[in-house]
Amino acid sequence: AQSVSQHNHHVILSEAASLELGCNYSYGGTVNLFWYVQYPGQHLQLLLKYFSGDPLVKGIKGFEAEFIKSKFSFNLRKPSVQWSDTAEYFCAVREKDTGRRALTFGSGTRLQVQP
Amino acid sequence: KAGVTQTPRYLIKTRGQQVTLSCSPISGHRSVSWYQQTPGQGLQFLFEYFSETQRNKGNFPGRFSGRQFSNSRSEMNVSTLELGDSALYLCASSLGPVLVETGNTEAFFGQGTRLTVV
Fold first, then answer.
1. What are the start-end ranges of the H helices in chain B?
2. Strand, coil or helix: B22
3. Looking at residues A54-68, what average pLDDT do you find?
């Protein structure tokens, strides 16, 4: 079965530090890739998505992610984090060519940004 | 444009009871998926409905069921509740048939229903 790994479970950064959260998936076929964010007490919100084309995608709030097909990775980056980025971040993958539209989520990374 | 609406937001049930949760998707969206979120297991896929038909099902026991109505609203039901069913249940809606079939569709999530089984 498809699996998604987020190796960093809890990350603590100071404001203005750079961020990179890892995401690796196992499915060998064509995929759609997503990063969602869940702020405390709020619903899951889409940060960015990759469907096809340019493997470097830009999302909201200054986030970007790079799809590296050979590494089955879709890492999330932000050059300078803010206190308001404190949240839980989830990577999600959809198998595009199987018709299975369900998202498989990683276990999440809790980001804590200290002022 | 209204987002995905889930009701109720909070629910407390006793072990052995059953519960029904409701989800109204974004207007025009025809695909509804349900996910269970717990601290231990994370986000796990329950099932997906499209045009009133269940299209995909996750690895949950038969106590978990769902349905979708002609207006795309969906309900999920859990019978014979167990303590381990305590979780945040999330509903996500996706766009109509063309985008769904190509796979290029993004899911929009509701705020969830927090179910506590005591």
1. 97-102
2. strand
3. 96
